[in-house]
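Sample entry (340 residues):
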Amino acid sequence: MIRLQLSPITTVQQAQAMLQTAINVEFGTLPPYLYAQLTILPGTNAAAMARLKSITHQEMIHLCLAANILNALDGDDTPEGKPTLQPPVYPGPLPGDIGSDGKVLTVHILPFGKPAMQQGMYIEMPVDPIDFPQLKLTATASKAVTIGQFYEALDAYLKTLPASAWSSNNRQIADKQFFPGQLFAVNNYEDAHKAIQVIISEGEGTSNDPLDFSKELAHFYRFEEMYRNQVLTSSDSPQGFSWGGPLGVNYSEAYPAIADPQLHDFSKEPAAARLAQDACTKAYSAMVDALNLAFRGDMAQLGIAVRKMFDLRMAAVEALHTPLADKSKVAGPAFIYKKI
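Predicted structure, serialized as tokens:
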């Protein structure tokens, strides 16, 4: 379970700092989710692939919405340095020293498999996951909060701000080409509240419903479906849902990709493997740079970032087809950022 140490919010500056943390948390989930998605063998695990694609797509939207809220609270005409993506190191903590049960959560880059799905559950877990039952994951900490509670506390403070605290049309990403009907500008508290509710709902569902506002399973329960290899379906049970038939997950139908490629010494690998990683690093770095420029007001950069994500996928495919010195292994993208 993601938990953040939460202090009372009393100033706009504190809210801005929390939003910057939220931006980097949302971004920090993308590499582990993408790695799991990319390492599924083509033509296999269709249900799992669809779920992972949907989750990564929505995380990208959450990232942009969080940036929109921060920009709406910042009327500064010199946007250099804010917001700023800070690519995490893996394995390592997500930004903000997030953890569970009083311990910092170490996030790994894992290929498609049960451990990757369980990690996704712990990242997305709500305060009280609904027990359907069969799998009951609980975690409590007196001074810790989940991402949902983090956003709710932020929302409660934002609600107290006067209209003058908000800057209308300030570096907003509201692109209709890449995220039609899902990404919108934040110009006031009402917009910010809507964005926060989208982020909470799509990640955790609600306290008594696994569905988000659009009546789709929240991320936590999608990961749980893949972890259990069972479909969560509506029923006459007291909870309104039950675990049904198999989802069709086959964890053996995945590339033999190494875990935590950032820790791997590619200097000892064949030239083809090194070149493949270099291409992944170049595409990932270009995507980060484009997103930073988009968040600072250059709207055209969002389209470039989306294209660089496609470049990253193509580079990852090449890497996953390139054996390492141990020919039984391959390496997906290490998600290393290098300033271009």
